[in-house]
């Protein structure tokens, strides 16, 4: 494979290699071929490492490049599989038809939710060089000495090839402190936006319907990728750009530089903000979903400093002044209602 082969193509092939090895665990020749492929290029070895991470999450994947491979050697497929001997269990009492229908509906809904939640996470894990779990924060020293701080549930991919320093913020939010290098711009690709600097400190958040870029010191240029549309030629200290991904509209506002990336201190600061928006920001610190049953409640305005290290208490503090309460319906679903 060419060194310039797209990263996703390497990951697809690494997954297929892994699947073949798992399907034929006794085939030493196949394992040797897999090792050869990894040793042929450092990027192949990295792709194999990420494929292992994904396997740990799923254990079951369909090969996407199987048409490129020769048939599995007979030695790997000749051994028959002996079926397990299972003693039939006593039949369970039949449930009423309506209860069976509700159970099937609930199961289908749960399966759909799990698919929506897990599939994007697997794609992110495939691409990411650095990840944080729910509730975790992590500092990453980048190859040029710049610093990236990842918030809960965030993921980065790093590419320092060529004449640019490129970071892909795949999910969550991150704070960057960039080591100056005028000859090699530092660009964060944040889904629908590109943020370019030579040396500065700034925060980027890509979760939800908006992308936010806020500058603590220095300046950054913000534009839409693949076009000449420049949203800000020089976003400076204390300025924040909020980009609506659906409407492709950008708004500028200002805030004290000390409030930028306050999440690094475990704080979520709201000032006359929609309760629904603040709940959405807090969701990254919780497993599962938060459901606001009352749309009128979501429109209420709140002001406060909330502790992201205790998100349940933070949700109660937001809800109680408006006559609402927090209920836990399952380990993955919190409900706010009044």
**Shape type:** globular
Q: What is the name of the CATH class of the largest domain?
A: Mainly Beta
Q: What percentage of amino acids are in beta strands?
A: 25-35%
Reading side by side through the largest sheet, how are the strands ordered?
A: 1-4-5-7-8-11-12
Number of domains: 3
H-E string: HHHHHEEEEEEEEEEEEEEEHEHEHEE
Helix content: 25-40%
Q: Low-confidence segments, ≥5 residues, pLDDT <50?
A: 1-5, 57-119
Structural class: alpha+beta
Overall pLDDT score: 79
Question: Count of DSSP helices?
Answer: 8
Distance between the termini: 59 Å
**Tally of extended strands?**
19
Profile the largest sheet.
7 strands, mixed
Structural Rg: 24 Å
Instruction: From the 3D structure, determine the CATH topology of the largest domain.
Output: Jelly Rolls
CATH architecture of the largest domain: Sandwich
Would you summarize the structure shown here?
The chain has 338 residues and is an alpha+beta fold. The chain contains 8 helices and 19 strands.
């Amino acid at each position: 494979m060419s060194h310039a082969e797209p990263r996703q193509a390497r990951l697809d092939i690494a997954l297929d290699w892994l699947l073949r090895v798992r399907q034929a665990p006794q085939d030493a020749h196949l394992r040797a071929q897999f090792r050869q492929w990894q040793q042929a290029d450092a990027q192949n070895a990295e792709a194999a490492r990420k494929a292992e991470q994904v396997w740990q999450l799923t254990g079951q994947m369909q090969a996407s490049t199987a048409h490129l491979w020769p048939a599995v050697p007979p030695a790997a497929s000749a051994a028959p599989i002996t079926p397990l001997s299972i003693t039939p269990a006593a039949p369970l009492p039949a449930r009423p038809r309506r209860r069976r229908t509700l159970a099937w509906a609930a199961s289908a809904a749960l399966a759909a939710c799990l698919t929506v939640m897990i599939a994007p996470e697997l794609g992110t894990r495939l691409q990411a060089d650095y990840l944080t779990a729910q509730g975790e924060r992590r500092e990453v020293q980048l190859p040029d000495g710049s610093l990236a701080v990842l918030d809960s549930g965030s993921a980065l991919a790093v590419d320092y090839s060529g004449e640019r320093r490129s970071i892909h913020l795949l999910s969550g939010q991150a704070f960057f402190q960039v080591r100056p290098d005028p000859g090699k711009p530092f660009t964060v690709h944040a889904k629908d936006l590109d943020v370019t600097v030579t040396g500065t400190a700034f925060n980027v958040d890509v979760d939800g319907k908006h992308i936010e870029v806020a500058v603590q010191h220095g300046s950054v240029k913000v534009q839409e990728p693949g076009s000449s549309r420049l949203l800000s030629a020089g976003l400076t200290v204390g300025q924040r750009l909020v980009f609506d991904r659906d409407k492709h509209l950008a708004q500028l506002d200002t805030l004290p530089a000390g409030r930028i990336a306050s999440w690094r201190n475990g704080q979520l600061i709201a000032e006359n903000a929609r309760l629904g928006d603040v709940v959405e920001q807090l969701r990254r610190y919780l497993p599962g979903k938060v459901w606001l049953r009352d749309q009128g409640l979501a429109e209420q305005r709140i002001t406060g400093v909330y502790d992201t290290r205790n998100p349940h208490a933070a949700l109660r503090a937001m809800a109680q002044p408006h006559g609402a309460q927090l209920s836990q319906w399952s380990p993955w679903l919190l409900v706010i209602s009044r």
